[in-house]
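Example 3.2
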Amino acid sequence: MNRRLSSTPWIHRRSRLIIGAIATLGALTTAYLTVVKLSQSSAACPTKSCDIVLQSDYATVFGLPLALFGFLAYVGMGVFALAPLAVDPVKKKDSRTKLENLTWLLLLIGAIAMSVFSSFLIYLLVFKIKALCIYCVASAIFSFSMLVLTVVGRAWEDIGQIFFTGIVVGMVTLIGTLAIYAPPPNNNSGVTIVENPGKPAIISFKPVEQPKPGVGWEITTTSGEAEIALARHLKQIGAKEYIAWWCPHCHEQKLLFGKEAYSEIDHIDCAPTDNPNGLKDECRAAKIQSYPTWIINGKTYAGVQTLEELANISNYTGARNFKYTLIRQ
C-alpha cells in the first residue's frame, strides 16, 4: 500500500482538497458580493471599480444578484470535490470508486462552464463596463485554477473525454450566456415599461449602450403633475440626491420622475467626468458610499426610492397619482 501511495503523484492525492479549498474561497467571495448587492452598500475595494461593476445591469440575472449564482456554483464544486473523501476507501471501496468517477465528471463539467462564463465576464469588464473588479478577477482565477486541477488532478483514462466534454459544455455555456445578456428587442433606450392597469406602470432599465461621460443616459420618460409637484417639494425642503453618471440605478431614479420633474431635483454627480472611479470632495464629505443616495431632513436613504417612498419620507401632502414605480430586486 505504501509503495502504491508513493508512486502516485502528489497532485492526484491532493487535488480534491485543493479544489475544495479554492471552492471555499470562491463561495466566501461571492457570498460577500451577494450581501453587498442586496444591501446596496459599497464593497471594500481600493477603487470605485467594484461598485461600478456591482451597480451595472450585468450584475443582475433573472432579478437576482449574479454573485448568488456564483456562490451556488462554488458550493456545488466544493461538494463534488470533497464528497468522496467522506466514504471509507477500504470498507466501501466500490462505492468510493463509483462516487469518485461521477464527481470527477461533474467537476470537469462545472469547471469548464465556470471558466467559459468567467471569460465572458472578463470581456464585459474590459470592453463594456470598462472597470475591473478585484473580486471578479479573483473569481475568474479560482474558476481557471479549478479547471486546471480537474484536468491534471487525476489519471484520466480517456483524454478524448476531456476534449469532447469541453467542446459540448463550452458551447452550451456560451450560447446560454449570450442569450441571458442579449439586449431587449426593439428597444434602443434600454427602458422597459410594463403597464399595470389602475396602478403606476412598472419601469426597469437595462443599458444597451455606454453612458455619456458626465451625463449618463437620456431621460426618455415624461412627467405628470404629481411628479413635478413632488420634485419641487423635495427641492423646497433641501433634499439632495447623490448620483454617478455611469450608474444604471441612478438612471432608474431619473426615469421614475421623468425628464421635466427631474430637472427640478437638487442632485450632485459624485463621479468626475474624466475619472468614473473618483469621488468629488462634497460627496466624500457627505460620506456617500453607494448610488443613488438621498439625504432628506438629515437622514440618509441609499438606493433607488419609489416616488411613493420619497413622498412618505419627505412628508409630501400633494397629489400622488404617480406614473411609474419599480419592482424591488
